[in-house]
Amino acid sequence: MARVALAYDEIYLKHDTGGHPEHEGRVRLCHEYLRSQPFFEKLIKVRPRPVADEEVLLVHTRRYLDSLSSIPSTRRGNLDPDTLFGPGSLKAARYAAGALTEAVDRIEAGDIDSAFCLVRPPGHHALPDRAMGFCILNNVAVGAAYATRTRGFARAAIIDFDVHHGNGTQDIFWEDGDVLYCSLHEWPFYPGTGSREQTGAGKGAGKTVNIPLPHGSGEEAYIEALEEEVLPAVRRHKPDLIFISAGFDAHRSDPIGGMNLDEESFATMTRAIKQLAMESCDGRLVSALEGGYNIDALAASVGMHLAALLD
Ligand SMILES: [Zn+2]
User: Fold this and answer.
1) Out of 5, 146, 207, 216, which could bridge 46 as a Cys pair, Cβ 3.0 to 4.6 Å?
2) Could you report the per-residue pLDDT of 116-155, keeping only the tens digit for each?
């Protein structure tokens, strides 16, 4: 059986966004749900650490990090029209990205095979120099850059099945030949990037794979795109480690996304990606929560995702 870790910390509840769809109840209630599941005791519990400045600076600018650090600790406000910030936000963001670096270290040390990081704020819209779309630090990008630039992993692949395109992750690795970025997303939709023509540049030419799917797409369309385009692209890249930007907002009950998946669909996709990781890199896989805004659907989907990783 795979040794699967769960990285979670109540620090994520301190990023207080009030009545915003991306609120603390998302991870709190998911964690409660997971605790009620028979497989919970099989998960290896990992404590996230705060990401170090030099790890943040692998993907974000010094100017942006300094601007976040200089916000007075009592201040509330917006970093962009969708991204709220309060007294506990930067600490939560540091522990969200730090869950990924901790997971990479545990995998490299051979303690675990794979990890799911139940984190917030999410990450995949965060750009090198600014927050965007509920995201402050780009958690998965920090993890992939940390793995490939500072640890012993030559190549990484990121598979992003959040309903939105991960424009921040695409931007960060646009010219990076070591990190493959593959996204399945609703199109046309926020944030507007992610056309098939966007494939990377320089050393990263061909290392961005965008698969836009029409509004209302269901499991069949996702599995076909995964099997015919994403899995072959990842096999060609020969990664040493695979990341998942695991957004569950393509669930049919999600109030933001317009797709037609259910929790079983996420189990099916997870099994396919896990099988790919077994073939490509001895099962080494780091998954991190991105979106998902119907709490019941999110908890059920995260449960199926973890059960499939454990299987
Ligand atoms: Zn999303």
Assistant:
1) 5
2) 999 999 999 999 999 999 999 999 999 999 999 999 999 9
How much distance in Å is there from the Cα of 185 to the middle of ligand 1?
9
128 upstream amide cis, omega within 30 of 0: no
- pLDDT tens-place string over residues 14-32: 999 988 999 999 999 999 9
Residue ranges of the domains in the chain?
Answer: 4-310
Per the CB < 8 A criterion, the answer to whether 290 and 247 are in contact is yes
pTM of the model: 0.99
Dig out the tokens for 135 from the structure. Answer: 């995201």
Q: Please, what's the largest Cα pairwise distance for the chain?
A: 50
Question: Residue 238 has which token pair?
Answer: 């020969």
Q: List, as one string, the DSSP characters of the chain.
A: ---EEEE--GGGGGS--TTSSS-THHHHHHHHHHHTSGGGGGSEEE---PPPHHHHTTTS-HHHHHHHHTS-TT--EEEETTEEE-TTHHHHHHHHHHHHHHHHHHHHTTS-SEEEE--SS--TT-BTTB-BTTBSS-HHHHHHHHHHHHSS-S-EEEEE-SSS--HHHHHHTTT-SSEEEEEEEESS-TT----TT----GGGTT-EEEEEE-TT-BHHHHHHHIIIIIHHHHHHH--SEEEEEE--TTBTT-SS---BB-HHHHHHHHHHHHHHHHHHHTT-EEEEE-----HHHHHHHHHHHHHHHH-
The whole-number pLDDT of residue 90 equals: 97
- CATH topology for 4-310 is Arginase; Chain A (3.40.800)
**Residue 238 CA, ligand 1 centroid: distance in Å:** 27
Q: What's the 206 CA to ligand 1 centre distance in angstroms?
A: 24
Cβ proximity of 212 and 194 under 8 Å: yes
CA 191 to ligand 1 centroid distance, Å: 10
Point out the residues that are catalytic.
125
Pairing of strands 285-289, 241-246: parallel
